[in-house]
Specification:
By secondary structure, the chain is an alpha+beta fold. The chain folds into 2 domains: 56 residues, no CATH class; 176 residues, Alpha-Beta Complex (Phosphatidylethanolamine-binding Protein), CATH 3.90.280.10. It has 4 helices and 14 strands. It is globular, with a radius of gyration of 19 Å. Pfam families: PBP (PF01161).
């Protein structure tokens, strides 16, 4: 394996590979390599992780995906990963709707408000930006809400995406995207726990590291490439050639 100034070139490539997969929020337990095209009002979310003004999120987004061409059905989730509770960060379910189909122009069509109707992002005033991941799964036959999650559909808080995926047998996601929303409408009246770790292991046992100072670029197929990582890889090649 090639090494450059003590840094494994192979590890750089591995980091690049895992980062390209990140269409869900950093540290989210589910990863997807294809992008949902999400539009809140007139705000098209690109790249993934864009900071969206809260007023733009009053209504559910319009969602399209060219990567899902099935005649079957799908299940859509929207999950906040950063809700402060008891000195830590937990997940809150903002939207869950099953029996999603495709209509014209690859637009997702919803049969109704869903099992958990859309709830607008409402992070506490003064907290760090919250990450909201939208992720689409193929819907298994005879899909139903696992019994241990029926109460969570009402309370929304303490949702667990990875546990739901396992309990419902959802498999691999079709595509995903995420936004960030921050509430700056007033003066903070509480203190908040530290931001959640963003190097959690995904359901496929693949970690998605963050790279401080890296700039996201959109590649073909909707994948995200972090310019900081690409620069490091190119620098590694150049250094090896010297």
């Amino acid at each position: 394996m090639l090494h450059c100034k003590g840094l494994s070139f192979g590890l750089l490539l591995a980091a690049l590979k895992t980062t390209v997969l990140a269409q869900t929020a950093p540290g989210f337990s589910v990863q997807a390599s294809s992008t949902l095209n999400v539009t809140f009002g007139t705000n098209n979310v690109s790249p993934a992780g864009e900071l969206v003004p809260r007023p733009d999120t009053v209504n559910p987004p319009n969602i399209t995906t060219p990567v899902w061409t099935s005649n079957g059905k799908a299940v859509l989730f929207m999950v906040d990963s950063d809700v402060p509770r008891n000195g830590t960060r937990v997940e809150l379910l903002h939207w869950l709707v099953s029996d999603v189909t495709l209509s014209g122009n690859n637009t997702l069509s919803f049969p109704g408000p869903g099992e958990a109707p859309y709830r607008q992002p409402s992070p506490p005033v003064g907290d760090t930006p919250h990450a909201y991941t939208l992720v689409l799964f193929p819907q298994p036959e005879n899909f139903s809400i696992p019994s241990q999650f029926t109460d969570v559909l009402q309370t929304r808080v303490f949702f667990n995406m990875s546990n739901f995926v396992a309990a419902a047998g959802l498999g691999q996601p079709i595509a995903a995207n995420y936004i960030k929303v921050q509430n700056l409408t007033g003066t903070p009246t509480q203190t908040f726990p530290p931001p959640r770790p963003t190097n959690a292991t995904s359901a496929s046992n693949t970690s998605t590291p963050e790279f401080p100072g890296a700039a996201p670029l959109v590649l073909g197929g909707g994948r995200v490439f972090w310019a900081g990582v690409g620069t490091a890889v190119v620098a590694g090649i150049a250094a090896f050639a010297l």
